[in-house]
Design goal:
- By secondary structure, the protein is an alpha+beta fold.
- The protein has four domains: 229 residues, Butyryl-CoA Dehydrogenase, subunit A, domain 3, CATH 1.20.140; 136 residues, Butyryl-CoA Dehydrogenase, subunit A, domain 2 (Beta Barrel), CATH 2.40.110.10; 156 residues, Butyryl-CoA Dehydrogenase, subunit A, domain 3, CATH 1.20.140.10; 36 residues, no CATH class.
- Helix content is 55%, strand content 8%.
- A hairpin with a 2-residue loop joins β5 and β6.
- It starts with 11 loop residues before the first helix and ends with a helix.
- 45% of the residues are buried.
- The chain binds ligand LEIVNPRT and flavin-adenine dinucleotide.
- Flavin-adenine dinucleotide binds next to β1, β4, α11 and α12.
């Protein structure tokens, strides 16, 4: 495999690590990419995007002012957008505009975030999912060609989670065949939408639809908010940026207020429900929640996004841990590489395994999503609730796990991991937002719990359940599972834990209603358990999917690759079994002796994986331009890069900062 040759000598410790690796790295890269041809395609696209240096910043993004950072990000977005439009989409095919390959190259341009991300990330998918064929013909080519730039304005100052509580109104006027968009209260300001503040000239708006004097709930509208030539906000539109936040600092998350702003009837996105010219409302024939489709789509894609982010953090932390030496183990012996500490391996090897677990699960979820879309095309929406339950819990758990693993990667890099030049703080703050946006963690797990409680009741009634909850058919009446210390045994025990927790929720709700509580209060009182049950279900799905997909995907692999992929999956199973010993003790016959044995095997496995650690992160094949890290580059020149980056600090532009003469010296002389 062609590796982008480092310009400098590779750090000797890192070079030695690469000699230790005992499997074919390229084979694993091909598995991650989804096949050899996909690796070739990805590399071709990366060469187009990255070889001309357009992604490079003279001054690090983080050293710029807010305005400069935004302006620089727009500049790079335009260069990048142009490359996507003219060269990259030709290779992927226009239908793959959200291909992970494009997503990867975007990271080389933006350490933080592109102000255009939500244009491709949500605006375009909404047009694809919510427009009639005529509307698609009108809007989609312009959006894909970037003649218009869009945002997704759903959340308001007062409501994000509870979509039915949104206050923006869209009132239909049949005489003029127009909708009037209005923000009636301060809490109805649209708030948060990425790219809305300064970049977008259009946006999709979620608003309460009124026609013939009746409210029909939230629907989507496409709205032009700025003049395409002057970029000035149109009359009736107040738009701006919401201010600095934890991350997302090079983008312009926006606010938007409508003052009786008129749009043509055709601007309601009418694939599912519509308003006729005379004002008659025609509701969706299929399902009431199809306007939420973009959210489901993004939740599905976020699982692969999390895999990518963990793989970046793991690459940085593992390469750094191979270079970094700290603390004598024995007097007069060289300090070991910190990667030799089992505690360090415990923090980091699970990250490699999780990146694989999420990647394989995301492919499986994507196929499930496509199958549901195909069913819906034929008018069958029966599979939608399961997809909603699945995408909700996988989004919640993958973003939450990614966040804690990335934080562990930062801890694993000690003080240097706190430097922005390590890139770990950027990765962390980006992923922190994913736990909240597109549906908060708790809220989405409670959506899954609704589905699970219903499924449990159906299992109790002897009905056959769909695939992801079919374990409830087998385990509904099981009390404590006989512990079986095999891989399949661990997976089964997680299904029994999930079934036990769901059963306990059902019982709590029933006990509470039997004692006089109404159902809503009984549900509310049980929500802490319900979140735990949905998480347990998600763990069972993740473990089962990772294990079975790993076995399928490595069927034709070489023996060494099979072995290391197998070791990672076993590590994942054991890690989670040990994390959940309390649940195992409660729901299975596992003994202290069994758990001690599991712990011993886990520690041995860390040692077995140790020689392959650097090889495994090299297999993610993340170019230095994408990693943006002083600690994680391929050549391991960690200390040299930290010094080079320090010199880029604007505070080092002059030997004495003017504040000394203005403030410090007068203070020292008592003249302040
Ligand atoms: C090259 C570049 C590529 C870049 C790609 C990078 C990836 C990142 C991309 C984008 C970044 C995204 C940035 C962030 C954008 C946003 O955050 S947009 C705003 C997102 N907002 C939310 O997610 C809000 C969360 N809230 C909800 O989803 C819902 O309100 C709710 C599910 C919590 C409740 O909805 P509600 O209308 O109140 O429904 P209920 O009455 O509770 O439920 C009725 C039944 O409907 C079922 N249901 C709910 N949602 C769905 C759905 N989506 N699909 C199918 N069914 C649904 C619900 O379960 C109920 O069913 P039952 O009655 O049978 O129990
Ligand atoms: C970086 C970023 C980018 C974003 N981009 C966009 C965008 O482009 N477009 C857009 O429309 N929106 C966007 N959002 C908004 C985002 O979708 C919402 O913030 C998110 O859905 C959470 O909603 P909320 O802020 O109303 O939180 P809240 O719902 O107010 O949550 C606050 C707390 O209350 C809890 N809670 C709320 N409801 C319940 C419940 N029913 N049961 C139990 N607990 C509950 C939550 O768990 C949480 O702990 C973005 C947000 C961020 C942070």
């Amino acid at each position: 495999m062609k590796i982008n040759k480092p310009k400098h000598d590779v750090n000797p410790d890192l070079a030695k690590e690469r000699l230790k690796c005992n499997f074919n790295i390229e084979e694993v890269t091909n598995i991650i990419d989804g096949g050899k041809d996909k690796t070739v395609q990805r590399k071709k696209i990366e060469d187009i995007a990255l070889n001309n240096g357009a992604s490079l910043d003279e001054v690090p993004e983080e050293c710029l002012s807010i305005k400069e950072r935004y302006e620089n990000a727009v500049r790079k977005s335009c260069v990048y957008g142009n490359l996507v439009r003219n060269e990259m989409l030709e290779i992927t095919g226009i239908e793959n505009f959200e291909s992970p390959v494009l997503r990867r190259t975007a990271d080389a341009f933006f350490k933080d975030i592109s102000p255009f991300m939500l244009h491709l990330g949500m605006f375009v998918p909404t047009l694809i999912g919510q427009c009639t064929p005529e509307q698609t013909a009108e809007w989609l080519p312009k959006a894909l060609d970037m003649q218009i730039i869009g945002a997704y304005a759903q959340t308001e100052l007062g409501h994000g989670t509870f979509i039915r509580g949104l206050e923006t109104t869209a009132t239909y006027n049949p005489e003029k065949e127009e909708f009037v968009l209005h923000s009636p209260t301060i809490t109805s300001y649209k708030w948060w939408a990425g790219g809305l503040g300064k970049t977008a000239n259009h946006c999709v708006v979620m608003a309460q639809l009124y026609t013939q004097g009746k409210c029909h709930g939230t629907h989507l509208f496409i709205v032009k908010i700025r003049d395409l030539d002057t970029h000035m906000p149109l009359p009736g539109i107040t738009v701006g940026e919401i201010g600095p936040r934890m991350g997302f600092s090079s983008a312009d998350n926006g606010f938007l207020r409508f003052d009786h702003f008129r749009i043509p009837r055709e601007n309601m996105l009418m694939k599912h429900a519509k308003v006729e010219k005379d004002g008659v409302y025609v509701k969706s024939a299929k399902h009431g929640k199809l306007t939420y489709g973009t959210m489901v789509f993004i939740r599905v894609t976020l699982v692969s996004e999390m895999s990518f982010n963990i793989s970046k953090a793991a690459t940085i932390a593992i390469r750094y841990s191979a270079v970094r030496r700290q603390t004598e183990l024995r007097p007069n012996e060289p300090e070991p590489q910190i990667l030799d500490y089992p505690t360090q391996q415990h923090k980091l090897f699970i990250c490699i395994a999780t990146a694989h677990a999420f990647q394989l699960t995301s492919c499986w979820l994507w196929n499930t999503f496509q199958a549901v879309l195909a069913d819906m095309k034929k008018g069958n929406v029966d599979t939608l609730p399961e997809l909603h339950a699945l995408s909700s819990c996988l989004k919640a758990v993958s973003t939450s796990d990614a966040l804690s693993h990335i934080e562990q990667c930062r801890f694993a890099c000690g003080g240097h991991g706190y430097m922005l030049s390590s890139n770990l703080p950027f990765i962390y703050s980006f992923v922190a937002a994913t736990r909240t946006y597109e549906g908060d963690y708790t809220v989405l797990l409670l959506q899954t719990a609704r589905f699970l409680v219903k499924a449990s009741e159906q299992a109790e009634a002897g009905k056959k359940l769909t695939q992801t909850v079919s374990y409830l058919n087998r385990t509904a009446n099981a009390d404590r599972l006989n512990w079986d210390n095999t891989h399949e045994g661990i997976i089964k025990s997680f299904q029994v834990i999930a079934a036990g927790k769901i059963g306990q929720c059902v019982k709590s709700i029933r006990d509470r209603t039997a004692s006089g509580m109404d159902y809503e209060d009984a549900w509310l009182m049980t929500t802490v358990q319900l979140v735990g049950a949905a998480e347990a279900h998600c763990r069972a799905v993740l473990l089962n999917t990772y294990w079975s997909e790993m076995r399928k995907i490595t069927e034709a692999s070489s023996a060494d690759v099979k072995k290391v992929m197998h070791q990672l999956a076993v590590l994942y199973l054991m890690y989670w079994a040990l994390e959940k010993t309390g649940d195992l003790l409660k729901y299975s016959s596992v003994s202290k002796k069994d758990l001690d044995e599991l712990q011993r095997r886990y520690e041995e496995l860390l040692a077995e994986l140790r020689p392959n650690a650097v090889g495994l992160v090299d297999a993610f094949d993340l170019r230095d331009e994408i990693l943006h890290s002083s600690l994680g580059s391929y050549d391991g020149r960690v200390y040299e890069r930290l010094i080079e980056e320090a010199h880029k600090s604007p505070l080092n532009d002059e030997p004495v900062n003017q504040s000394f003469h203005k403030y410090t010296k007068p203070l020292m002389l008592g003249k302040l």
